[in-house]
Write a structure and sequence with these properties.
By secondary structure, the chain is α/β, with parallel strands linked by helices. The protein is built from six helices and six strands.
C-alpha cells in the first residue's frame, strides 16, 4: 500500500499595516492604524481573495495595529479562521514565530498566518528561505513592507521550517495590489 505524501503547510506571514506615529504619552504597543494602513488592508484583502489565500489558523500579536489589521482583513475576506492572540509576537524573536509554524496545531490546520512585526516577520521569512534554491537573495526585495504578505509552502515534517524545507511562493505588497 502506498501512502500519499502529506499536503504542504501554507505559511502566510503578514506584517501589520501602516500605523500612526505614537502621540506623546502613547506606548508603541498602542499605535492604531492610520488611513494609509486601512487602505493597505483593503487592497491586500482583494488580492488574497482573488488568489484564495485564506488561513485556517491565525496567530496575531496583541499590539493594537496587528489586531486592527487582522480584524479588517477577516471582515473584508468574510472568513472565520481560528485566531489566537499572543503578546509573544510583539516581544519575542523570530524563533517564536518559527515555533508556531512548526507546531502540531499549524500542521493540522493546513494553512497558518502570523500577523506580526518587523524585524521578526522578515527574519522568519529569511529563515524559511534559507535552503530554497529557487528563491534568490532578493526574494524580499528591499525589505518587508507594511501589510506585506509572504507566502510559502512548507513541508509538514516537524522541523521543516527550521531545516529550510520551504518553497517560496511570493511576496505581496499592497502597493502592487
Amino acid at each position: 500500500m502506498t501512502t500519499m505524501p502529506a499536503l504542504p503547510l501554507r505559511v502566510l506571514l503578514l506584517r501589520h499595516a501602516h500605523a500612526a506615529w505614537a502621540l506623546p504619552g502613547t506606548r508603541d504597543f498602542d499605535r492604531p492604524l492610520d488611513q494609509r494602513g486601512r487602505d493597505e488592508v483593503e487592497r491586500l484583502a482583494a488580492t488574497m481573495s482573488v488568489n484564495a489565500f485564506t488561513p485556517g489558523l491565525v496567530y496575531c500579536s496583541t499590539a493594537k495595529r496587528c489586531v486592527e489589521t487582522l480584524d479588517l482583513l477577516i471582515a473584508r475576506l468574510g472568513i472565520s479562521p481560528t485566531v489566537e492572540h499572543t503578546g509573544a509576537l510583539y516581544s519575542e524573536t523570530h524563533e517564536t514565530y518559527l515555533e508556531l509554524i512548526e507546531s502540531d496545531r499549524a500542521r493540522e490546520s493546513g494553512s497558518i498566518m502570523i500577523v506580526g512585526h518587523n524585524p521578526m516577520i522578515e527574519d522568519t521569512a529569511l529563515s524559511l528561505l534559507q535552503r530554497d534554491n529557487k528563491a534568490d537573495e532578493g526574494a524580499l526585495g528591499s525589505g518587508f513592507p507594511t501589510a506585506g504578505l509572504f507566502i510559502a509552502d512548507c513541508s509538514t515534517d516537524p522541523d521543516a521550517a527550521t531545516s529550510g524545507r520551504t518553497r517560496f511562493m511570493g511576496l505581496l505588497s499592497p502597493v502592487d495590489a
